[in-house]
Automatic annotation (TrEMBL):
Domain Deoxynucleoside kinase: 7-206
Keyword Transferase annotated: yes
Organism field: Tumebacillus lacus
GO molecular function, one term: kinase activity
Pfam families found in the cross-reference section: dNK
Alphabetical list of Gene3D superfamilies matching this protein: P-loop containing nucleotide triphosphate hydrolases
This protein's record includes keyword Transferase: yes
InterPro entries xrefs: DCK/DGK, Deoxyribonucleoside_kinase, DNK_dom, P-loop_NTPase
This protein's UniProt keywords: Kinase, Transferase
Protein name: Deoxynucleoside kinase
Amino acid sequence: MSLPQFITVEGPIGVGKTSLARLINARYGFHLLQEIVEENPFLGRFYDNIDEWSFQTEMFFLCNRYKQLNDLSKQYLQRDQSVVSDYNIFKNTIFARRTLSAGELDKYLSIYDILTADMPQASLIVHLTASVETIMGRIAKRNRSIEQNMDPNYIRNLRDDYEVFLERYSVEHPDVPILVLDGDKLDFVERPEDLDFIFQQIDAILKKEQPTHA
């Protein structure tokens, strides 16, 4: 029996992670794991004042994602059931390094290391990226009240942080394939041919073939 797959879809806010994870779920029948976002009681205040509310916001996300992944491992992966998730827990460190002060970051990373020491690792990471203009347009389109004051510079920095992090991750974890998809070129929600292209890339990776670049 083949090992269960654990696909994580990652990228900056508003790039389409949840939409793609749901489409992968529908195509492959993997269990769908979605991150808790709007339930975070600090998030609205965080976007209004990042310095004041960053630690509370990041700790809430970390604890909830830890609980989700711990349950996921026991209920699905350890029972040979494949999973697709619209986040990878490493995103916590990307956001924390951008938002926390040096003193807070040291404390946060210590807790992160303890909680994630035995977490399940992705068998495939799908990295969605796009221009700031595309991302801001998608954020506006989904019209979440907590995101109305989103700063484009914050999105730009976050997008760049993902690029740097995943370049380093690919070197440190050469056994984990990373499929990079350009959201400026691919519209997998509106264009079925783009979605078919993405599925071809995923099929190739799952079959241990080398995908072409989008």
